[in-house]
Specification:
The protein has 168 residues and is an all-alpha fold. The chain has eight helices and no strands.
Length: 168
């Protein structure tokens, strides 16, 4: 049963893959796939913490801590499962620095940020991140660095982490 599910996962992932197909869809997917990078978010949040108002400084600090906690949780799970990424050439940076795909750290981070934005009380940011998070998650599979099941697990994990960290 497990093998059948893994084969189905691989087939479905391959069908949605655009990494090897030049064109606007691939370009948009690549941009979205990168937009969830932790360095991008940490850099932006550090800048917000440094230059922002007291309101935004406190939120930036909360999200920085949440990103670091999320990264640690994802890393532990990846080291437990050690699932190899789908074969491909796009995303060599990700493939070289982190060869494991389950769960998707980008999907986890995106959904954690979206849930926390809802909890932190900024309506415009919450709406933007709720729209952005599924797009980033799907783009990771479309660009061939994750299977659909990696993304689904990341979504569930991100929602759970976001809820827990919002309530703490």
């Amino acid at each position: 049963m497990r093998e059948r599910l893994l084969k189905l996962d691989a087939r479905l992932t391959e069908r949605m893959r655009v990494a090897e197909r030049p064109g606007p869809l691939r370009t948009v997917a690549a941009i979205l796939a990168h937009s969830g990078d932790s360095w991008f978010w940490l850099g932006g949040l550090l800048l917000l913490w440094w230059q922002g108002t007291a309101f935004w400084r406190s939120r930036a600090l909360s999200l920085i801590i949440a990103i670091l906690i999320t990264a640690a949780v994802v890393m532990v799970i990846k080291l437990i499962f050690r699932r190899s990424r789908p074969a491909g050439e796009w995303g060599s940076f990700y493939r070289n620095t982190d060869p494991h795909s389950f769960p998707s750290g980008h999907a986890t981070r995106a959904f954690m940020l979206a849930v926390m934005a809802i909890g932190l009380g900024s309506a415009w940011l919450a709406i933007a991140l709720v729209v952005w998070a599924p797009l980033v998650s799907l783009a990771r599979a479309a660009m061939g660095v994750h299977y659909i099941s990696d993304v689904l697990a990341g979504i569930v994990l991100g929602v759970i982490i976001g809820i827990v960290l919002t309530l703490v």
